Amino acid sequence: MLYRQPRPEEIVTQSGCAPERMLPRELTVCVWNWQKSKCAGWTEEFNALAGAADLFLAQEVRCSPLVKKQMEKTRLCWTHAAGFLSLKNKYPVGVATGACAAPEKIRFKQGAREPLLKIPKMMLAAAFALETGQTLLTVNVHAINFTGITPFQENMHHAAELLCGFKGPVILGGDFNAWNQKRRNLLGELVSAAHLTEVVFSPDTRTRCLGRKVDFLFTRGLKTLAAGVRCTDASDHNPLLARLILQ
Q1: Which residues contact 59 (CB under 8 A, 6 or more apart)?
Q2: CB 136 within 8 A of CB 170
Q3: What distance in Å separates the CA atoms of residue 144 and residue 94, rounded to the nearest whole number?
Q4: Which residues contact 165 (CB under 8 A, 6 or more apart)?
Q5: Parent domain of 65
Q6: How crowded is the C-beta side of 185, counted as CA atoms within 13 Å?
Q7: Which segments of the chain are extended strands (E)?
Q8: CB 142 within 8 A of CB 95
């Protein structure tokens, strides 16, 4: 086993200090798989994106001291949910949600383990107060890869559980690893059941695997004002950016 499973008290950590008590009605959202921040130029790219975002959904976040220091320099409050700790340095690795307001509630779901390295994936849900008096639910997903359809189906079921029963505005985003039609169909079923709308990017330069897009952003109760993809060499995924407004 090339990782250590985190103890309960190590799964969720927070860093940074948010300047606001509530998220604004109009906000910029970024979705980006960081590829464990191991590519040259990651720091500069992250600083630019974090400076523009009110809400940041990140995957493959390895919380090394350098990464944590960069996160704490932003104006965002970060909640990190670790799926595992690296065996060499014991750094937590998972998903992280940053926002210009601290979350009121958080929940996480750990997915099945991938077959070769036995590494689990993580989902993180966070609820934020909005200046409109509503509550925004965000769900940050890094779906399982390199498996058959059943573990992926379980992943989508976990996402549905996090969304279940919530009637307000929703942002669902992340790296869904939807690289074949069966996976894309299951993702579509989740989106339909939760009454979500897919954010459209044009030109669509999202990262692809086997010719299919893997990173997605979905909303409910929000209108897309603008959306784009930023091409970068700072990760093996291009970041998604969208300007949204509550309807």
Answers
A1: 32, 33, 34, 95, 140, 141, 142, 174, 175, 237
A2: yes
A3: 12
A4: none
A5: 3-246
A6: 5
A7: 3-4, 12-15, 26-33, 55-62, 77-86, 92-99, 105-113, 120-129, 135-142, 170-175, 197-198, 208-209, 212-213, 215-220, 222-229, 240-246
A8: yes
Q: In this structure, what CATH number is given to the domain that contains residue 42?
A: 3.60.10.10
Q: State how far Cα 130 lies from the chain centre.
A: 19
Whole-model pTM over 0.85: yes
Question: Which helix (H) or strand (E) is 161 found in, with range?
Answer: helix 149-163
AA identity, residue 82: A
**Using CA atoms, how far apart are residues 10 and 235, in angstroms rounded to an integer?**
26
| Rg (alpha carbons) of the chain, rounded to whole number | 16
Say whether pLDDT at 116 is over 80.
no
For residues 121 and 116, give the distance between their C-alpha atoms in angstroms, rounded to a whole number.
13
User: Is residue 65 reached through a cis peptide bond, with omega within 30 degrees of 0 on the bond before it?
Assistant: no
Residue recorded with tokens 């359809």:
149
Half-sphere exposure of residue 44: CA atoms within 13 angstroms, side-chain side: 6
pLDDT digit string, tens, across residues 195-232: 999 999 999 999 999 889 999 999 999 999 999 999 99
Query: Which tokens is 196 given?
Result: 């979500």
Q: How many residues does the chain have?
A: 247
